[in-house]
Specification:
The N and C termini lie far apart (about 80 Å). This protein has 15 helices and no strands. It is about 75% helix and about 0% strand.
Length: about 375
């Protein structure tokens, strides 16, 4: 009987408290309540006082739980606004129309007929702007598409982070809080949604489309720069769903790495060349780990044999264009993920690694 009463006291404890502390406090309250109950049986006023104290305690527990949940939701709302889309500053009607169309695509399910209608309208504006050959119209395409690509990247990062929280994996911004709450057995409302409100797979597909449109508008560098800077998304993608990983590999490998390879080749100005090399370095740092760990795909490999061979050549070309110390950083990163991933033996950069060793040895001998 005593154990049952003890468990009932423990069950009323605020769930945010760690289990050990909750048990200690419950034990103290249980013993105090037993002592108080002995006197309360003799005096009715003490029974009334015990009833009031118990109800005040339960009210405090519920208030504390509600307060923590509200604070958690406030953080989610604040983070959502952080990822919210900010339309480019352009006072032309055609720019506002294109921005609105691209923004609306996020809210429409892919299965809806309206999705294709809205996307075709956006494509028509983009194509007409580019075909007219007017600099102002082409600039609208660049600015609006770049803003849409950046927004989709932020939303995808939010969606992947929130999915990782819900599954108890990953290291998203809210993961430590949810881990604590789950440790004490407290269900947090809103775990099934994501901060962006858009499925991650849909966002990944739209990023592919936006990248293709940026390439059509001869603005691929914008997409490469933004993709290279998305290091947190690259990290989160290592524990993402395999299907999403496959989509990201295809976007990074089949398109953006190839575009990055040729960046700055015709550049003469030294400062701009250095900036291009920094983008390439960030690109490798952010996304090479995912290539090592997610090339197998789910139903089918993410890349074909020929695509893998081509990308290996692209990666070698980019790496060998870096400074010697930067090459060491990237090859060390590759070696770590390549050797620690038992399910994949790609990308094969052994020859690139051997060439770097040869150059380093020569520098030592002749230095």
């Amino acid at each position: 009987m005593g154990k049952k009463n003890m468990e009932s006291w423990e069950g009323t404890m605020p769930r945010p408290l760690p289990l050990l502390l909750r048990n200690v406090i419950a034990s103290v309250l249980y013993n105090a309540d037993n002592s108080f109950l002995l006197f309360a049986q003799k005096y009715k006023i003490l029974q009334t006082l015990r009833f009031i104290l118990l109800n005040c305690y339960l009210f405090f527990v519920r208030f504390l739980s509600s307060f923590i949940l509200d604070k958690y939701d406030a953080v989610k709302v604040k983070q959502y606004h952080k990822y919210a889309y900010e339309a480019p500053r352009n006072d032309t009607g055609i720019a506002r129309a294109l921005s609105q169309l691209l923004s609306s695509l996020n809210d429409i399910p892919v299965s809806s007929r309206k999705y294709e209608v809205v996307r075709s309208l956006a494509e028509r504006i983009i194509d007409d702007n580019q075909r007219d050959g007017v600099h102002a119209l082409r600039e609208i395409n660049r600015v609006v598409l770049s803003a849409a690509f950046a927004r989709a990247l932020r939303q995808l990062e939010a969606a992947v982070a929130e999915r990782g929280i819900g599954e108890g994996e990953g290291e998203g911004e809210y993961y430590p809080l949810r881990r604590v709450l789950r440790t004490v057995g407290w269900r947090v409302k809103g775990a099934e949604g994501n901060l962006s409100g858009v499925p991650a797979e849909k966002l990944a597909a739209e990023l592919v489309w936006l990248a293709q449109k940026l390439a059509f508008c001869e603005c691929t560098e914008e997409a490469v720069r933004l993709w290279a800077a998305a290091s947190n998304l690259g990290y989160l993608s290592l524990t993402a769903d395999p299907r999403l990983q496959s989509s990201l590999v295809k976007l990074a490998a089949a398109f953006l790495f190839k575009e990055a390879k040729d960046m700055g080749l015709d550049e003469i100005e030294g400062s701009k060349m250095k900036l291009h090399m920094q983008v390439k370095l960030k690109m490798l740092q952010s996304w090479l780990p995912l290539l090592c760990r997610a090339s197998n795909g789910t139903d089918a490999p993410a890349l074909s044999i020929s695509e893998k061979a081509e990308l290996e050549r692209v990666l070698e070309n980019i790496i060998e264009g870096l400074e010697q110390e930067e090459q060491e950083q990237i090859l060390s990163l590759w070696l770590h993920h390549f050797t620690h991933c038992s399910s994949s033996d790609w990308p094969n950069l052994h020859a690139c690694f051997a060439r770097w060793c040869t150059v380093s040895r020569k520098q030592l001998l002749h230095g």
